[in-house]
Amino acid sequence: MMPLITIGIYKLLKSKSLDGLKVEELQSMEIKLNKKIDDLNTEIKEIERAIERLFEKAKEAKTKSEEISLANRIKTLGQKKEMKQSAVIQLEKELRVVTNLLILKENEKDLKEAGVWDKLKKLDPEKIEKWLTSKALERRNREALINDIISLTSAVMENIEHDEDLEEILNIIREVKKGDIDVKEASRKVREKE
Questions:
Q1: Alpha helix stretches (DSSP H) within the chain
Q2: Is position 94 within any domain?
Q3: Which residue in 43, 102, 111, 127 has its CB near the most CB atoms, within 10 A?
Q4: Weakly modelled stretches of the chain, pLDDT under 50
Q5: CA angle 98-103-105, nearest 5°?
Q6: Could you tell me which residues come within 8 angstroms of residue 189 by beta carbon, excluding any fewer than 6 positions away?
Q7: Whole domain around residue 181: which residue ranges?
Q8: Contact 137, 105 (CB under 8 A)
Q9: Residue (of 160, 154, 128) closest to 12 by Cα position
Q10: What whole-number distance in Å separates Cα of residue 58 and Cα of residue 56?
């Protein structure tokens, strides 16, 4: 498995305070994460095409040993694809956190004026990481952003929100794994959700 771009948000927040994080550093991390995700998604598509070619080749297999050899190659490629997909999921989580940290830093002045910044700095880095992973902060008006961040500093944040969209996609993935639907049908279902 390839090394991840970031050192882990928990470690980053533990090694640097929110004040110590630089907007430029976060922007650079965001660009690198997006590039790595794009590269991995390209590699995943290449693996999918290779698997399709092997299935085409398997149609013409003359012997049992040829079939077994092709099946093993397909299995290996499938495992490689799963590893890359797992890396993409991890990188997307880290990207969400970095993007959210960037939004916090871009709004630092407003958050300080609202009295929220000092509360954020006192929170456990692990708790901030979980919250930032679960949220999709947007670059939006000051009041809405501050209200979201205040929710982090309140007792309400003890339970991380459940992501319904993610759960639906996971259900589709489970259907594909069970063989109830094929990959193209799964892609169509996900596109319809969007």
A1: 9-15, 23-59, 64-106, 108-113, 117-122, 125-134, 142-153, 164-178, 183-193
A2: yes
A3: 111
A4: 1-7, 155-162, 194
A5: 90
A6: 172, 181
A7: 162-194
A8: no
A9: 128
A10: 5
Q: 132: buried, middle or exposed (CB in 10 Å: 19+, 13-18, 0-12)? A: buried
* Global model pTM greater than 0.70: no
Q: Give the pLDDT confidence score for residue 109 in this predicted structure.
A: 85
2-14 confidence digits (pLDDT tens): 444 444 555 666 6
Say whether 124 sits in a helix, a strand or coil: coil
Please give the Cα distance from 103 to 79 (Å, whole number).
36
- Assess whether 109 and 149 both reside in one domain: yes
Q: Calculate ∠ Cα 130-134-135, nearest 5°.
A: 120
The full length of the chain comes to 194
Residue 98 counted as domain residue: yes
Residue 3 lies in a domain: no
